[in-house]
Every structure is written in structure tokens, then in C-alpha cells.
Amino acid sequence: LKEENASLRSRINKLQIFSETQADKMKKLERMLEENKIKEEKEAQDLEAMVHHVEQNLQLMTKRAVKAENNATKLKQENALLQVQLKNYKMENEALRSGQAASLAAVKQNADVALQSLLTVITKSRSSIKQLVSGAESLQLVADLLKSIDRISEV
To answer: Rounded to an integer, what distance in angstroms lies between the CA atom of residue 153 and that of residue 151?
Structure first.
């Protein structure tokens, strides 16, 4: 009985040690599981924050695109207006060249008014539209032509 009792005590001690080892392993695994949960929650929060940031960027880009489209429409309208004015000035220039103007003073006055109008249009277009710079340069050329007509008519 003593031997069997000692054997059983020995087995009980071994089982207790094994049980403690298993309990330690369980605690470590539980800690690791908790750490993994915390890590996954943090990653989920980071992903949510990233998604939110991307959504904000998309909204901002959408606003910018709408603004750019509106600006492009406005520039097209202003360009069409400038084209009509240029056509009118060309017709007036042709009329002046063909001698239909009543007198030299009237021609000079019309040229001055046209020049002032052109300069006003050029100033406005330069201040508000970078894309129409080339059109403004064309208008400046027309203004120079009007000046040269004044000089030619004076001569």
C-alpha cells in the first residue's frame, strides 16, 4: 500500500506539475489571444480611419472637378464673347479700310473706342483667365492694327 500510495502521490505530483504547465500555457495563449484581438481592433480602426480619409479626399476631388468644369464652361462662354467682339472689330476694320467711314475724325474716334474696348477686354481676360492668354494676344494685335490705321489715315 505504501508503495502504491507513493506511486500515486508521485503520479499526482506529476499530474499537478503537468496541470500547472498546461495552465501556464493556457494563460500565455489567452494573453496572446487578447493581444491579437487588441492588435486586430487597432488595425480595424486604422483601416476605418484610412477609408474615412480616402472618402474625404474623394469628396474634395469631386468638388474640385465640379469647380473646374464650371470654370471651363465660364471660360468657353467668355471665349465665345471675345470671338464675337473680335469679329465685330474685324468688320469695323474692314469698313474703315474700304473708305466707308464718313470722315477722318470719325474713323479716329471709332478706332480709339475700339482700342479702349479691346484693352478693357484684354485686361479682364488676363486677370480672370490664364487659358485665354493667347486670345488676348490676338486682340492686342488687332488693337495694334487699329493704331496703325490711325497712323496711316493721318499720313
So the answer is: 5
Q: How many CB atoms lie within 10 A of CB 12?
A: 11
Length of the chain: 155
Distance CA 140, CA 82 (A): 12
Buried/exposed code over 70-90 (b: 16+ C-beta within 10 A; e: otherwise):
eeeeebeebeeebeebbeebe
Which triple of cell numbers denotes residue 119?
A: 484693352
Give the three cell numbers for residue 33: 489571444
User: What DSSP string describes 22-34?
Assistant: HHHHHHHHHHHHH
Quote the CA–CA distance of 54 and 60 in Å, as a whole number.
10
By the 8 A CB rule, do 149 and 109 touch?
no
Each of the 155 residues of the chain gets a pLDDT tens digit; together they read 899 999 999 999 999 999 999 999 999 999 999 999 999 999 999 999 999 999 999 999 999 999 999 999 999 999 999 999 999 999 888 877 776 545 666 667 877 887 788 778 767 765 666 655 565 577 677 777 777 876 776 66
Predicted TM-score (pTM) of the model is 0.40
